[in-house]
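Tutorial, part two.
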Amino acid sequence: MIKSLVFRTSCHFFVVSLYTIKQTAEQTGITEDTIRYYEKIALLPRAERKDNGHRIYRQADIHTIRLVACLKKTGMRLEEMRPFLAVSTDTDPAEYPELVELLRSHRSNMVSQIASLQQVVDFIDMKLEEGRYRRDCSDEPLNDLLEKRMGEPKPKPVSPVEMSYFSLSAKAGKRPASVR
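Running the prediction step on this input gives:
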């Protein structure tokens, strides 16, 4: 941390920690070049600058960069992130039903991708168990064969209750990770 600023308003003191771009990169796991790129394309607001022109970041900036990194890990395109980044961290998701629906849709796509990857893992497991590697990896026969051979049930589909986490966390007074 390069320094902390202390502000006093009436009877309250506020401490604001400032970080260099290097410290910000270390805390977020995002490279300095990527942070600069996100600023350049206006995914992140332009960083404040010291008198010498060096960028400085606050804790709120670090939270935003972490949110971008999290959404990116889910496969969300940078352009799709913009509406989520425009919403303040203390906003009730119920105020933005279109964002809730976008997030649910994105989650549904991720669940489908996970299921598809699980089929590949199951196929590999079956091949390792059988010791033969010439069979195809079609969906239905593989699932049935695995259930018979390994005695494991097929994964259950995600329930609507599980899919509604985003709105439930708001009702419980928790802030969803997607709008922090």
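The beta strands are 3-9, 12-18, 48-49, 55-56. In part three we will examine how such features are distributed along the chain.
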